[in-house]
Amino acid sequence: MLGLKLLTDPRWANIAESNLHEILSDHAWCEQKAASNAIMLITQNPEYEDLVHELTAIAIEEMQHFQMVIDIIKERGYTLGRERKDDYVGRLLKFAKKDGSRNQAFIDRLLFAAMIEARSCERFRVLSKNIKDENLAKFYYDLMVSEANHYTTFLNFAKKYTIDVDVEKRWQEWLDFEGELIQSYGTKEYIHG
C-alpha cells in the first residue's frame, strides 16, 4: 500500500528495544516535528480551507502522540532526551524542489510529509510485530494506523491541489530516492535511523 522500495529489516526492532529510552525520546521529537510541519503547511497555504481543517486535526493528533510518548517515557522512569538532528529527514528535505513555481514547492512539501508518514508507518509496523513488550507493541500498532491515515491525507492533497506537477510521476521519484536513501539507515535506535 505504501509503495516503499525497501522494507525495514525486522531485526531493527531488536536495536530499538535494546535502548527504549533512546527510541522513545527520538519518537517523541518526531511527533513534535510532524505537528510543526503540519502547522507550517497551514500558515503557508491558508487559502485551502479543507487543508487548513485537516492539517489542524493532524497537528493536534501529532501533539497528542507527543504527549502519549512523553507519558510512556515518564512511566518507565526515563526522561525526555534532547532533540537531535534527524539526518534522514534532512536528506529528504534537500530532495524537495524549492526552485520551481509556488505550486511545485507546495506539492513537494506535501509529498515530503507523505514520505515521512509512510516510513514512520512502516517502522511502527515493524515495532508492533517484533518487540516483546506487549503494551508497546499495541501502542505502535495504533500509531501505525494513524500514520497511514496521515500519509494518504498528504498524498491526496498533493493530487488535489497540483497545478503544474505530475504528482504520480513525482511521487515515484520520491519513492525511488527514499529507497536509495533508506539503505543507509536501520542500524540505530531512531525512528528513521
Automatic annotation (TrEMBL):
Matching InterPro entries: Ferritin-like, Ferritin-like_SF, tRNA-Hydrxlase_MiaE
Gene3D superfamilies: 1.20.1260.10
Gene Ontology molecular-function annotations: tRNA 2-(methylsulfanyl)-N(6)-isopentenyladenosine(37) hydroxylase activity
Gene Ontology biological process terms in this record: tRNA modification
PANTHER family associated with the record: TRNA 2-(METHYLSULFANYL)-N(6)-ISOPENTENYLADENOSINE(37) HYDROXYLASE, TRNA-(MS[2]IO[6]A)-HYDROXYLASE
Stated name of the protein: tRNA-(Ms[2]io[6]A)-hydroxylase
Organism: Sphingobacterium paludis
